[in-house]
Amino acid sequence: MDILIAFLVVAAIALLLGILLAVISHFFAVPEDPTQQQVRACLPGINCGACGYKGCDDYAAAVAGGGVKPNLCIPGAQSVADAIGAIIGVEAEPFDDVVAFVACNGHCGATHNKADYEGVQSCEAAGMLFGGPGACTYGCLGFGDCAKVCPADAICTIDGIAHVDTSRCLGCGVCAKACPKGIIHMLPQDAEVAVMCSNKDKGVDARKACQNACIGCKKCEKTCPNGAITVVDNLAIIDYDKCTACGACVECCPTGCLKKVFFPNLPEGVEAEDLLD
Q: Which residue among 31, 41, 188, 254 is least crowded, i.e. fewest CB within 10 A of its CB?
């Protein structure tokens, strides 16, 4: 009997608390903004933060509040921007598609290790030990921190360095934020030339670390007919607003660190949401 009474008392308290919580949630509930709900429904739900907000919910709230552009969702691209613009009655500006690019060509055949590493299999952890085990302290560490965070499974590690499948890349930039070396850049979708190196050492030292390194010789800078390339801190940098993809820089580069690239769009009929984990 004592056990039954104790059970009934606990059940009664639970029932009263449940009723109390229901009443409180009814009278103190904050009404949701229908515009915010509509905007949120358009977003892919990656919560990558590429828009400058913590996640899709925060961005939707900011757009619904007014004064925020509808084209900040990079993974959603132009289609999402147009949909949000239609909801808030604003014409979305043209969207510049970008893709992730690993600025390193230090594969196993071009470089070597200066030490053996047996610690945590993480780029961040390995980089804390004298810049990592690789001879080039600027190069890809190859442990795949970028691949682990990619929501579209667009990155893999081959021959010691990360590679991006740009046909799957959403352009969210999560991988760039995860890279402790900062060698993953977001390039314009229509870019046709890229610098596959991040080494800023002087030419002799850079070449000792990696055969494919940029040596800062400035041949590309002098050859480019449009002034699209400058060498800063011994590393070639491309101004894509000036680049016409003539290929002159690629032909004259003595180490081959300037490469022709092609970044395809998502396959026809495939939406960004279809690639999410």
A: 31
